[in-house]
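Predict structure. Chain length: 452.
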Amino acid sequence: MSNNIDLKQGLNIPISGAAVQKTRKTVSPDVIAVKPTDFKGLTPRLLVKEGDKVLAGSPVLADKKNPEILVTSPVSGTVSEVVRGEKRKLLEVKIKADGQQEYVDFGTHKASDMSADEVKELLLKSGLWVSLVQRPYGIVADPSAEPKAIFISAFSTAPLAASPEFALKDEFDNVQAAVNALGKLAKGGVHVSLNIDNYSGSPFHKLENVIPHIVSGKHPAGNVGVQISHISPIMKGETVWTVSLLSLAAIGRLLNTGKLNLARKVAITGPKAIDPAYVDALPGISMKDIAEFYDNSANDIRFISGDVLTGKNIGAEGSLGFFDNQVTLIHEGTERELLGWAKPFRFGKFSSSRTYFSWLCSRKTYDMDTNVNGGPRAFVMSDVYSKVLPMDIFPVYLIKACLAGDIDKMEKFGIYEVLPEDLALCEYVDPSKNDIQAIIEKGIDLMIKEMA
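Prediction complete.
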């Protein structure tokens, strides 16, 4: 087990549109969307119908397989619409928010006076249990299981990621309360990883009752999966839980106030963002609620909930995900460039392989778009993945095993250690233009189906 992790592989993507550290707006949403698709492994059962009144903290969904796992409303209001997709798959529950918010009272709690069962019961009743993610597979944590440890990444290296020091500057006491409570759920303790570049500047190095780790390196150094692989790799039959700082703050507010409060600072970022900055908001807000940050008159913006590597394309009518505190606005790259690959003097284009002379401008940022500059082609064996993936696995063989649906080889080559987000950079640098995250996701889905 390492307390100092120095990662040599990785890549920071210099995309333009970082949010300045100021809050420009408090979003008072008219409608909030609760999306069961945010929670992998949850089979939703609808608990409300259109026209029902709900409070902030009222159950909206339950897991069919484990009914004690609930998803609750982040606002008080009226259920305005239940959105379904193909084969009546439940996609969203839309709630029209009240002007004055009312909350379910869960009572205040002091973590030191609570047992593990009491912590678990509170998180289940409040709907915050779904913020605990279980590895392998990245599913909602099983309340009947005991993980070997709980892991938290206290920093992010993703492109244009929200600054934890700014977004959570007033949340230290809440985060500490949450850590104290979650520590009762795992014998292996709570592991917190901090960035060496901002160790003293982060208030989270003062957290008590944790096992600290100091990490240095480029993206994906901030990914909790990468940190776990260097701290305590996941073996077959083992489980660990992860939780974000964002969710810790919400859990701490629940303990200290007795109310479900999912408020967060959301970074509006990206090359197409106008004056990128932060807003105070809730998960489930519509992209229309931040309309002053973009001009989509040409219908040429991709709206991403999250970062450009791992976020979801939600469209102009979409809503912010439960786990996200970043929106990225980027140009839809539909233009084609004649002989673009044969023009080395392209100082306006970034190349991870130094194909263009733009690598000489090390501090420059680029107005990147969604153009992948080519289509899928033969899967070429090379070392490009290992240059950006600081994990002790064989990514090429793992990807091929997932494509083949070979469970034995998936186990052999590291499927228990990864989620799609961990191989996002492999997808970015892939000369064959493979959708690697989707391939890994498909492999994980097969593992869940066959190994359940």
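Summary: The longest helix spans residues 436-451.
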